[in-house]
Protein: Probable GTP-binding protein EngB
Amino acid sequence: MKVTQSEIVISAVQPRQYPADALPEIALAGRSNVGKSSLINRMIHRKNLARTSSKPGKTQTINFYRINNVLMFADMPGYGFAKVSKAIRAEWGRMAETYFTKRETLKGIIQVIDLRHPPSKDDIAIYQWFKEHGLEVLIAATKADKVKRGQWPKHLKQVKEGLGIVPTDRMVLFSSQTGQGKDELWSEIGRLTQP
Ligand code: GTP
Ligand code: MG
Structure:
C-alpha cells in the first residue's frame, strides 16, 4: 500500500474511547522496547508519528492511527516490562484483554518479536492466548539489521519453534532501520484486512 495519509486518532484507555470508524484494524503487540511503534512509523514512512523511545514502556495507552482512511493501526503498550509495578501489569492485562476480546473491527494482530533472541515466556504465553481466542496473528521478527544475514534462517527458526507457530500464521523478517520486510508486511496486512 502506498501511504499518503496517516494521523493519530486517539490515545485510549477505555473502550468508549476507541474510534467509532468501522475501518478494519490491525493491532501491534509485543514486549516493551521491541520496536512496535518504530514498525508503524516505517510502514507509513513517518519518522515519529508513533512515538518511540530507547526506554521501555513509552507507549502506555492504546494509540490508534488512521491510514489512508482505509485501515487502522492500534499500537498497544508493551508487555513484560519488568520495572513496572504489579498493579500496572494487572492494569495492562485488563486493558489488553478488553481490547482483544471486544474490538469488533480487529482483523488481526502483528506480534512483534525480537529476531535476536528466543521468544520470552511472555511472548509465548501471549501468542498462545491469541490462538486460544481464535485471533489471526502475523509474526514480525524485527531488528533484523542487528543479525548477520547468514544467521537469519537460524534465528527465524528459533522464533518459529520457540513460539510454536501454527502453520496458518505467517512470519515476516523485518527491520525498521532498513525497511526490510515492509512490502511483504503490507501484502500480509492486505490479506488480513480483505473483506
Ligand atoms: P514500547 O512503546 O515501550 O512498548 O516500545 P516499542 O515496542 O514501541 O519500541 P520502539 O518502537 O519505541 O523502539 C524501541 C527502541 O528500539 C528504539 O530505540 C528504536 O530506535 C529501536 N528499534 C526499533 N526497531 C528497530 C530495528 O528494526 N532496528 C534497530 N536497530 N533498532 C530498532
Ligand atoms: Mg511503543
